[in-house]
Amino acid sequence: MVIRIAAVGDVHLDKDVVGRFRPALEQLPDSADVLLLAGDLTRHGTESEARCVATEFGNLGVPVVAVLGNHDHHCDEVPAVIRTLEDAGILVLEGTNVVLDCAGVRLGIAGAKGFGGGFAGRCASEFGEPEMKAFVRTTSAIADQLGEALREMDCDVRVALTHYAPVPDTLAGEPPEIYPFLGSYLLGQAIDSAPTELALHGHAHAGTERGTTPGGVRVRNVAHPVIKQAYSVFHLHPPYAGATAGKVSAISARGSS
Amino acid sequence: MTQRGAGGGEPPDDYLEAAIQRLLTERTEIAEQGITVSRRDHSVVLCGEVESAQRREEILRLVLEHFPEVPVMVDIGLIRTQAPTEVEELR
To answer: Domain of life here (chain B) (predicted)?
Structure first.
């Protein structure tokens, strides 16, 4: 049994883009069981742009699950954006999860936008000015929600979906100076707190596709400018229950929490 | 690559790169964070990929409007949207 996951992020839709993805999306149900959207769905977060997303990515014939990105927050219309997407059947995760039945296999998806802060040894700390403390607390709270959403699912396969990056590996190609604005190790730590099979993110347009968390979870940057196609498709081969337990042990043995 | 502007003249100011980068991000009719602005001897090069040809034109128009004295070279492509021909097996 294979679970087929299609994913793309950073499509930045507005009226000028509607229709560009649709020919490829019409073929999607033949090659994937679900489509995950890794944030920055709109150009700058208006309800009108969200309607473009709904037009382009709605009614696909497979479940569509999304997180928002920083662009989707810009105009402070997040509730309207979410309502518009969900009216079109696109489920938006914000520190929450969903379990889908994929031909008898329970696929659990936990999602959150994430935020910045940087990576171990080169990261921001909750110290100093109120603005700096608020910045780090924002990431920390989102990471806590993501970890909880991953751990609490009763499912056979876990996938984490974020906009910001959980590891620096998939940022290679971006200027190192801006890594703290592209992701946080706290997201990686949250992903490693559960037996996650795959972590998908966007945001880093000049990054690279592949990486792994310190706990061994495979990470893929599916930002549209990175994958250079309408979406990528990943085949997950769900392990038997015993094998899952073995993998968790193996991860724990390497010191991950 | 399209070359616009007068050419020659003084090299752009060091702060110009930052000004253009912020303009492209913060003007909401553009809202592009993925464009690299790099300084050459006598011009700036705008590099990256966008979701539509219209956006590429908007970027060029906005930069020329705000910095009419700066020679600008544009090397911005469209991101392809074809269906994938391969899948990644994760075992």
So the answer is: Bacteria
